[in-house]
Amino acid sequence: MKVTLSLPDELLSAVDEYLGQHGKGSRSGVCADALRAWIKGKQEEEIEAYYRSLSPDDEAEDRAWHDLAARSAAKLWP
């Protein structure tokens, strides 16, 4: 899908500098990669917030499920 973005001059300059240094790719590709990295970072923040919010009982249950899954995986893929 084609989308038009407006970027501050300093961001566009950074994109162009990156492309000049690496000699391949496009502005669109750099923006797509940056958005993918941003989405991944947001997902990691949500996961971290979830684990920080666990009660001690929830942490113990999570650890027990992790251990069970690890033992099961070890049996399937020795």
Descriptive report:
By secondary structure, the chain is mainly alpha-helical. The chain has one domain. It has helices spanning 9-22, 27-52, 56-76.
Percent helix, as a range, is over 70%
Q: In percent, how much strand structure appears in the residues?
A: under 5%
Number of domains: 1
- From the spread of the alpha carbons, the general shape counts as elongated
The low-confidence parts are none
Please give the number of β-strands. Answer: 0
**Helix and strand run:** HHH
Helical/strand content category: mainly alpha
Terminal Cα separation, in Å?
44 Å
Give the arrangement of secondary structure elements.
Blueprint: H1 9-22, H2 27-52, H3 56-76
Quick gist of this model?
By secondary structure, the protein is mainly α. It is 78% helix and 0% strand.
Protein traits:
single chain; mainly alpha; 78% helix; 3 helices; elongated; 78 residues
